[in-house]
Design goal:
Residues 169-197 are annotated as: Disordered. The protein is α+β, with helices and mostly antiparallel strands and 197 residues long. It contains 5 helices and 5 strands; from the N terminus they run ααβββαββαα. The chain has a single domain (24-180), classed as 2-Layer Sandwich (HIT family, subunit A), CATH 3.30.428. The protein is globular and about 35 Å long. It binds zinc ion.
Amino acid sequence: MDRIYAPWRIEWVERDEDPVDGCPFCVLPERDDDVESWIVARGDHNFVLLNNAPYNPGHAMVIPYDHVGEWGDLDDEAMLEHGRLKAATLDAMDAAIGPDGVNTGMNLGDAAAGGSIDDHIHTHVVPRWEGDTNFMPVIGETKVIVEAIDRTYEHLHEAFSTLDIAVDAGRSGDDRDEDDADGNGDDRERAAVRLSI
Ligand SMILES: [Zn+2]
């Protein structure tokens, strides 16, 4: 089998927007445009963000809203939801883009682990295809990459919106609406995904 050398990461995508000032995983969920931020789904404690330096189109990350650097520092509800939201992300990927396989995991610690943001934990969910170094040019025009991610966003967002991912049958949609009353971003346009834990 021929192996094609490709760098692991596509160059950081330059986009026409204000640069993030501070921790992007804290700042992006506070913005009022999930589409622009590439936040594809939200739970109560975690959200799903498309990576803007993707290994493949559809490379997503499950991220807690809390700025937490240690996996064990997440509280139980957030940790359970983190796992559920990862499972939902896998389902959405299957439905939307049908990868041959998926890599999922965390880079913990400093840059030696391969991560670029080491003080706000996040779980990578990376769709893989046979021979996927050819799936998209690894070095290409920025515009092409942005458009590829935008298209993937639409597909994934739609897939999330059709998932049935309520995990606690004891709570109704009305209960969830009440939870929304805490004012945590109700005015945002959200993906139609709300975990109930
Ligand atoms: Zn943060």
